[in-house]
Fold:
Amino acid sequence: MRSFLRRTVGPLFLMLATPIALGVFWLTASEYDGSLMRFFTEMSASRLVEVWPRPSLAAIEIIGIFAIVEALLMQLLPGKTLLGPVTPTGNQPTYKLNGPLAFVTTLGLFVGASWGLHLFSPGVVYDHFGEILTTVTLFALCFCLFLYLKGVYFPSSSDHGRSGNFIFDFFWGVELHPHFGKFNVKQYANCRLGMMGWPVIIVSFLGKQQALYGEVSNSMWVCTAVQLVYIAKFFYWEGGYFHTLDIMHDRFGYYICWGVLCWITGVYTLTSLYLVNHPIHLHPVYAVACFALGVISIWINYDADAQRQRLRRTGGNTTIWGKKPETILAKYKTSDGVERENLLLVSGWWGVARHFHYVPEIMLSVAWALPALFHNFLPWFYVVYLSILLFDRSGRDDKRCSAKYGESWKEYCKRVPYRIIPGIY
Ligand code: NDP
Structure:
């Protein structure tokens, strides 16, 4: 029964609810002044059918141009090739490391073509955002089906598998690292479409506020700046991202693929969307404090990720917080029967709690929600969603590491007993 709920009912519910949620958020922001309460009390069924965003040619054009530009940038811009972590069946996928250059080029092209050359209005994404959400949702659903069939009939490597339950396999995915020839589909979708679309969207939202009110409020500046610093950090650290659960563990189905293409597009950008029509003027001290909270949180989160990766890269020959790191040598077997080993860090941020880095990850999202103040829930939705996601993720990761490392993981849990918040959880 538990398995039926987790593998069939849960995924089915999520696949029905999440696309609807995107439409509801967009309508709430554009028609109901960002008030979910007003949306649910004032919206009628007939009005919903009338205003629900439809796909459009303009949306197809915007998404198509963006997708082609990003594919070209990923392929053509110079960058080293990185060998990713060994997969459970002993493969090592490759990645092109040119994220920072692609990030700067993408924003440069958007700002240059809109503000500079006036080829289109900076608010173009906002003007078609509802249509874009529906179009990208439909495209992503078709793409997930395509990936399912590709995984079943033409898998790119031995890293694929099925449970036999179509709903779960569609949701979770069949392949871990689908490729088209040498083209890494997961890197392209996660990093170059989802994560790269996000900055373009929020900069367009900023442009829309400027067009509507003749100026950009300091709340919009702070909110946009914190997000841009976070996204810039993501691309600077892109090589590290290939060592995270999204890439190493989660197969490429609806959960990740639809998630990065649609959920990032519609939910991670919500605070900025809300601010377009709420040009809040903050006290300068409050604005600076929000920005500082964001930057400090981003730094701590980055430092925690970097400590773990530096430890593995140097085989423990490094310093963490000025001292030789405390470690556990954890042995494990890949499914090809080969015995391998990894170092687990027991000092630095990884000695504070086993997933302490999720605290600054949540705090930085608080930092970009604070400028929207507290009148509505919509700009805070991402903070709540992220907290639930990360608390659930810490449990999933503990389970996975326990199965992988056995006694060594038990020892780590003994030495670092708390999962996220020391002394509490
Ligand atoms: P983590 O950074 O938590 O890494 C988990 C993996 O690290 C484990 O599976 C294990 O992998 C290894 N590991 C665990 N404990 C140790 C240790 N003590 N020493 C060394 N290695 C260890 O993965 P996430 O993917 O959850 O997070 C990566 C980044 O992405 C974080 O900064 C996080 O905040 C962020 N994030 C952001 C989200 C968002 O939507 N904004 C969502 C999720 C994450 P192995 O098998 O290699 O041992």
